[in-house]
Sequence to fold (281 residues):
Amino acid sequence: MSQGVAYLGPSGTFTHQAVLALRPSADAAPVASQAEALDAVGAGTASYAVLPIDNSVNGVVVPTLDALLERPALSIVDSVVLPISFDAFTRDPSIEPHVVVSHPHGLAQCRSWIESRGLATRESSSTAAACRDLGPGEIGIGPAICGSLYALHTVQSAVEDNAAAYTQFALVAASTLPHVSAAGDGDDGLLVTILPDANVPGILRRLLEVLEQRGINMTNLVTRPVPATPGLFVFLLFLSGSFSADDVTAMQEEWAALGATARAVGRISPLAELAELAERP
Fold:
């Protein structure tokens, strides 16, 4: 198996920076989508995939979660949080700009700067793609690395509205087992998916009572539809705490008794706690 890392490209994205933080010595291969990155791991052409999973401004990254839901043979084995800062670039500063181009999250996080200049916006598949493909009269918003990577002129640095924005990135590997130790090792956080057998009144409340009875805090809850079964939903629970393999098994058994199948996707510490750690000197 390759020891490389597939990541959501192109080169110069924040995800690329996360690869350097998580596996700095690995061969990094940019791909076009979350699904393609995970498929590379499933096929054995990459050992890992690195994907964005949560953002402190815009919330969870739904395409990443959906791609993970469709691939139960993969799990999250590590994560990193990075501060997100955007620079504004142009290819030719002599041309008056008329539009700002970036990923939707980038545009959202720099809205005040954009609106103060009265510029239109256009969405791109990624911040790096926006900068790489800049045309005349366009301003690209992306990571600072894009300036040197794509030979661009910096219009202004740090144009984001919120200087305390962070994104969490997941390191995914081929594993069907929850990434927990036998006795619990003090690592915080677990992402669990729960699929009820049927959509019946009160099912979510009963499922969450399992956490309440154990004193487990849920930091986020995401609901996603099951495409093959209209009207049925899978719940993604972001949990905070220290979990052993026995803890996970016991919760799975309790949820099964309530008519639901649970899967531990892996370690994923709460974004707020990771951001707090990242700010410490």
In short: The two ends are 38 Å apart (CA to CA). The first strand starts at residue 5 and ends at 8.
